[in-house]
Automatic annotation (TrEMBL):
Keyword presence, DNA-binding: yes
Single GO biological process annotation from the record: DNA topological change
Function: A type II topoisomerase that negatively supercoils closed circular double-stranded (ds) DNA in an ATP-dependent manner to modulate DNA topology and maintain chromosomes in an underwound state. Negative supercoiling favors strand separation, and DNA replication, transcription, recombination and repair, all of which involve strand separation. Also able to catalyze the interconversion of other topological isomers of dsDNA rings, including catenanes and knotted rings. Type II topoisomerases break and join 2 DNA strands simultaneously in an ATP-dependent manner.
Entries under Pfam families matching the protein: DNA_gyraseA_C, DNA_topoisoIV
GO MF annotation list: ATP binding; DNA binding; DNA negative supercoiling activity
Cited SMART domains: TOP4c (SM00434)
Miscellaneous comment as given in the Swiss-Prot or TrEMBL entry: Few gyrases are as efficient as E.coli at forming negative supercoils. Not all organisms have 2 type II topoisomerases; in organisms with a single type II topoisomerase this enzyme also has to decatenate newly replicated chromosomes.
Listed transmembrane segments: none
Topo IIA-type catalytic domain boundaries: 33-498
Organism: Desulfovibrio litoralis DSM 11393
Active site: Y121
Protein name per Swiss-Prot or TrEMBL: DNA gyrase subunit A
C-alpha cells in the first residue's frame, strides 16, 4: 500500500509535532510573554504605537477608546476588540499598574471587580511616562516589520527609556510555561541601573541593596526573606505579602479593626464576602458588624468588635483564613532574542541596558548623518555667499537650471546637492543678518557632529549619556515606595494565634468521654452547696479527670498501660457544661482494654523539669520532660510496668520538689524527688511506698521543699469518696526516705469513705468538685477548715443517695455568687 502514497506526504505524528511547536512559539513570543527590552506584550506595544501614530499624547485631548481599539485591530492586531480593550483598560487602572501608561477618563472598573464602561463611553490618551517609550522611534532606532496584511509597518520593539519589565511587571500563561513578574519602584530601578553602569560587575546581592523588593500599587507589607532572594537570584521564588490592618477605638470602650490596604491582585469585594462568610460560620468570632467604607480616598473595610474581644486573635484569623495574607510566586520569564528565558534581577536590568545602548547608538548615527548632510549643504551656501557676484553672473548667463547647476559644480567644486541648494536659495539669504545666521547654524552643527562622533567612538561618553537618561527618568517620574518592606519574617500564623488562651476545664469520664468547657460557665458557691449541673453522663459512667488549664497548653494523656499521647488543649472539642463530650477513641489510637489513666497539662518542655510517674502498686519513676516533647501519632512508651500494675498519675517536678504519695487507705509518705534518680522513658522506676495489705496509691502530690523559699503552697487538700475533705499543713508531713510505709493522712470511716485524691492548695484558691450524680460545686478553699492529719475533715458537698465525689481540682478564686442549683438533664 505504501507504494501508492504521495511521495510528498508526511506522517501525521511529524506534522502534529511541527504544527504544535509553531503554535506554541507563536503564543509564547506573539501573545503571552513580554519582550525583555520594553517589557511589553505585542498587544500593549501595538496599543501604544497606534496612539503615537494618532498623536494621542499626554498633552493632547483624549480620544475615544473605541477609536484606539479600532486602529489597533484594523492595522496591527487582528484579534477581538474585547481583548484589546481589556488590555487598554488595565493600562489605565491605578490598582493594576505601578505607573500608568494610559490616562483614562470615565469608568475603567474598580478594585471590587466592577467591569469598565463600554469603549464608546471612555476616553484615553498616553501618559507622560508612556511618551518615553516612543521617544526617538522616528530615528530608525528600532526595526520595523510588516503588519498582518503587509499594508503597514509596526515596530518589533519600542525604543523605551523605561525599564518596564520590572517597573510594571506582568503575568501571562503561554503553552507549557508562564511568567509572573512583580512591579517595582522606578526610583529604585534607576539606582540599580546606575549601579550597573558604574560597576558592571555588581552582583544581585549588590543590586538588592538599592532595589529592596517589589513595590505593589495596592501598598501593603512585603517580607524580604529567602523567597525574594531566590526570586532575584534564580528568577523563581515566593514572597509573602499582607494587607495593612489598623485598630481604632470607638466610643464606650469598643474597638474596630480597619483594613486600609490589601494584597496586590486581590478583589476587595470578594475579600469582604469571604470575611462575612467566616463570621457567619463562626470561624472568626467577636465581630458584631462588617462594613465596606471604601471611597475615592482609599480602602476602608471596618470590622466592629464585641466588648472584651481580643483584636489580635481576629486579625490573625483574617490573615489565616482569607487572602489578606497571600503569596506571590515570582517567575521572571521573558522573551530574549525570540526565545523564552528565565531571568534574574541582574540579567533583566542588563538586557535593558543593552537595548538602550543599541537605541542610543542608532539614534546618534541617525542624528550624525542628518547633521553631516545639513553641514554639507551649508558649506556650499557659504561658498556661494563668499562669491555671490560670480554665482549670480553664472546663473544669469545660463540657458536653464541644469546648465547653471553644472557650471556651479565645475566652477566651485560643489556636489549636486550643494549646487541645487544654491539655486534654491532665496534672495533674502543675501542680507548680512541671514548670512550670520547661516554661519552660526554651521558652527552649531559642527559641535553636534563632534559630540555625536564622540558617542559613537568613546565608550565612556556613551555610558555618560545612558546615566543622564536614567537620572532624568528618576527625577521626572519616580515616586515614593508604596509597599513597606519588612526585614523580619512575617510571623507564621499557628492555630494558637487564632484561639484565645482562655481558662478552660478539661473533663474526662471513666468511660472515655472528653470535652473542653470555658471556665466562666462555672460559678463559685459557698461550702456545702448542692452545686450546678455538670457533665451529662449515663448511669454507669462518671467523671475521672477534671483539669483547669488554658487553651494553648500541651495536653499529655497517659494510659493505664504506660503509654503517652500528646494533644493541644484547644484540639479537644468544646462542649457545653452539660454536654457528654466525644469519646477519646476519636482522638487517640487506643488499644483494646486501654484507657486514659491520667491527664497532665504543660506549657513547655524545659531541660530542668522532670515528670514523676506513680503507679497503683507504689512504684515511682523520674524522667526528663524533654524526653516527652515529641510524640508519634501512635503514642510512645512513657513508663515500664509490671503485669499486675498500672499507671495512676504523672506530675511535673524539678530538683527541689518533694513527692507526697497518698493511698486510699488514708496513709501518706513524703520524700525528696531526688531520691528517684532520672531514668529513660521505658524504665520501671523504684519503690515509693510500702503498701499495707490491699491498699493502693490514689494520688501523688508534688510540693516544694522546705528550703527552697517557696511560701505560696503550704497546705494539702485531701478529699474522700463520700464528700469529706480537709486542709492539712505541709509541715505535718515529715520528710522520709522513699520506700517506707508512711504516716496517717486521713481518718477513714464509713461516713467518709476511702480517699480519692489530694492536692496542694492556697487560701485564695477555688475548689471545684464533681459528683457521680453529675453535679458540680465550686467553693473557696478558705471556707474549708485547716485541721490535723489524723482527722476525717468536714463535709464539702451534700450527696444524694449512693452519690460520691469522683473528681476535683483547684481554680483561680472568683467573687462569691449566690448559690445556684441546676438539675442535670
Amino acid at each position: 500500500m505504501s507504494e501508492h502514497l504521495n511521495p510528498t506526504s508526511i506522517g501525521i505524528e511529524q506534522e502534529l509535532k511541527k504544527s504544535y511547536l509553531e503554535y506554541s512559539l507563536s503564543v509564547i513570543v506573539g501573545r503571552a510573554i513580554p519582550d525583555v527590552r520594553d517589557g511589553l506584550k505585542p498587544v500593549h506595544r501595538r496599543i501604544m504605537f497606534a496612539q503615537h501614530e494618532l498623536g494621542n499624547g499626554y498633552n493632547r485631548q483624549p480620544k475615544k477608546s473605541a477609536r484606539i481599539v479600532g486602529d489597533v485591530i484594523g492595522k496591527y492586531h487582528p484579534h477581538g476588540d474585547s481583548a484589546v480593550y481589556d488590555a487598554l483598560v488595565r493600562m489605565a487602572q491605578d490598582f493594576s499598574m505601578r505607573d500608568l501608561l494610559v490616562e483614562g477618563q470615565g469608568n475603567f472598573g474598580s478594585i471590587d471587580g466592577d467591569a469598565p464602561a463600554a469603549m464608546r463611553y471612555t476616553e484615553v490618551r498616553m501618559s507622560r511616562l508612556a511618551g518615553e517609550f516612543l521617544a526617538d522611534i522616528d530615528k530608525q532606532t528600532v526595526d520595523f516589520r510588516p503588519n498582518y496584511d503587509n499594508t503597514l509597518e509596526e515596530p518589533t520593539v519600542l525604543p523605551t527609556k523605561v525599564p518596564n519589565l520590572l517597573l510594571n511587571g506582568t503575568s501571562g500563561i503561554a503553552v507549557g510555561m508562564a511568567t509572573n513578574i512583580p512591579p517595582h519602584n522606578l526610583g529604585e530601578l534607576c539606582d540599580g541601573l546606575t549601579m550597573l553602569l558604574n560597576e558592571p560587575e555588581s552582583t544581585v546581592a549588590d543590586l538588592m541593596d538599592v532595589i529592596k523588593g517589589p513595590d505593589f500599587p495596592t501598598y501593603g507589607f512585603l517580607y524580604a526573606g529567602q523567597g525574594l532572594e531566590d526570586g532575584y537570584n534564580t528568577g523563581r521564588g515566593s514572597i509573602k505579602i499582607r494587607g495593612r490592618v489598623e485598630l481604632e477605638n470607638r466610643k464606650k470602650g469598643f474597638e474596630s479593626i480597619v483594613i486600609r490596604e490589601i494584597p496586590y491582585g486581590l478583589n476587595k469585594s470578594n475579600l469582604v464576602e469571604k470575611i462575612a462568610a467566616l463570621v457567619n460560620e463562626r470561624k472568626i468570632e467577636g465581630v458584631t458588624d462588617l462594613r465596606d467604607e471604601s471611597d475615592r480616598k482609599g480602602i476602608r473595610i471596618v470590622l466592629d468588635l464585641k466588648r472584651g474581644s481580643i483584636p489580635e486573635v481576629v486579625i490573625n484569623s483574617l490573615y489565616k483564613f482569607t487572602q489578606l495574607e497571600t503569596s506571590f510566586g515570582i517567575n521572571m520569564l521573558a522573551v530574549v532574542n525570540n526565545r523564552p528565558q528565565l531571568l534574574n534581577l541582574k540579567s533583566a536590568l542588563t538586557y535593558f541596558l543593552e537595548h538602550r545602548r543599541e537605541v542610543i547608538l542608532k539614534r546618534t548615527k541617525f542624528d550624525l548623518d542628518k547633521s553631516e548632510a545639513r553641514a554639507h549643504i551649508l558649506e556650499g551656501l557659504r561658498i556661494a555667499l563668499d562669491h555671490i557676484d560670480e554665482v549670480v553672473a553664472i546663473i544669469r548667463h545660463s540657458a536653464n537650471a541644469p546648465e547653471a547647476k553644472e557650471k556651479l559644480m565645475v566652477r566651485f567644486s560643489l556636489s549636486a546637492l550643494q549646487a541645487q541648494a544654491i539655486l534654491d536659495m532665496r534672495l533674502q539669504r543675501l542680507t548680512g543678518l541671514e548670512h550670520e545666521k547661516l554661519l552660526e547654524e554651521y558652527r552649531e552643527l559642527m559641535k553636534n557632529i563632534e559630540y555625536f562622533r564622540s558617542i559613537l567612538n568613546d565608550e565612556s561618553v556613551l555610558v555618560g549619556v545612558m546615566k543622564d537618561e536614567v537620572i532624568y527618568l528618576k527625577e521626572t517620574f519616580a515616586t515614593k515606595r508604596r509597599t513597606e518592606i519588612l526585614e523580619e519574617e512575617l510571623d507564621s500564623i499557628a492555630l494558637e494565634d487564632l484561639i484565645p488562651d482562655n481558662e478552660v476545664v478539661i473533663t474526662l469520664s471513666r468511660r472515655g468521654y472528653i470535652k473542653r468547657t470555658q471556665l466562666e460557665h462555672y460559678q463559685q458557691q459557698k461550702r456545702g452547696g448542692k452545686g450546678i449541673a455538670g457533665v451529662h453522663t449515663s448511669d454507669d459512667d462518671s467523671v475521672q479527670d477534671f483539669i483547669a488549664t488554658t487553651n494553648h497548653q500541651f495536653l499529655l494523656l497517659f494510659t493505664n498501660r504506660g503509654r503517652m499521647h500528646q494533644l493541644k488543649v484547644h484540639q479537644i472539642p468544646e462542649g457545653s457544661r452539660t454536654a457528654k463530650g466525644v469519646h477519646i477513641a476519636n482522638l487517640l489510637p487506643l488499644e483494646k482494654d486501654e484507657f486514659v489513666a491520667t491527664v497532665l497539662t504543660i506549657r513547655e518542655f524545659t531541660q530542668d523539669n522532670y515528670f514523676l510517674f506513680a503507679t497503683r502498686q507504689g512504684m515511682i519513676k523520674r524522667s526528663s520532660a524533654k524526653l516527652y516533647a515529641k510524640s508519634r501519632k501512635s503514642g510512645l512508651i512513657a513508663v515500664g510496668l509490671r503485669d499486675d500494675d498500672e499507671l495512676i498519675t504523672v506530675r511535673e517536678v524539678d530538683d527541689n520538689c518533694h513527692a507526697l504519695l497518698i493511698t486510699a487507705g488514708g496513709y501518706a509518705i513524703r520524700f525528696s524527688c531526688q531520691d528517684a534518680r532520672p531514668t529513660g522513658r521505658g524504665a520501671s522506676g523504684v519503690k515509693g511506698i510500702a503498701l499495707r495489705g490491699s491498699d493502693n496509691v490514689v494520688a501523688c502530690v508534688i510540693v516544694p521543699s522546705e528550703d527552697n523559699g517557696t511560701e505560696e503552697i503550704s497546705e494539702i487538700m485531701t478529699v474522700s469518696r463520700l464528700g469529706y475533705g480537709k486542709r492539712t499543713k505541709l509541715d505535718l508531713y515529715r520528710l522520709q526516705s522513699r520506700g517506707g510505709k508512711g504516716i496517717i493522712n486521713f481518718k477513714i470511716t464509713s461516713k467518709t469513705g476511702d480517699v480519692i485524691g489530694a492536692m496542694p492548695v492556697k487560701e485564695d484558691d477555688g475548689l471545684v468538685l464533681l459528683t457521680s450524680n453529675n453535679k458540680i460545686i465550686r467553693i473557696g478553699v478558705d471556707d474549708i477548715r485547716s485541721i490535723g492529719r489524723a482527722t476525717q475533715g468536714v463535709r464539702l458537698v451534700s450527696l444524694g443517695e449512693d452519690g460520691s465525689v469522683v473528681g476535683f481540682d483547684t481554680v483561680n478564686e472568683m467573687p462569691n455568687d449566690k448559690d445556684e442549683e441546676i438539675e442535670s438533664e
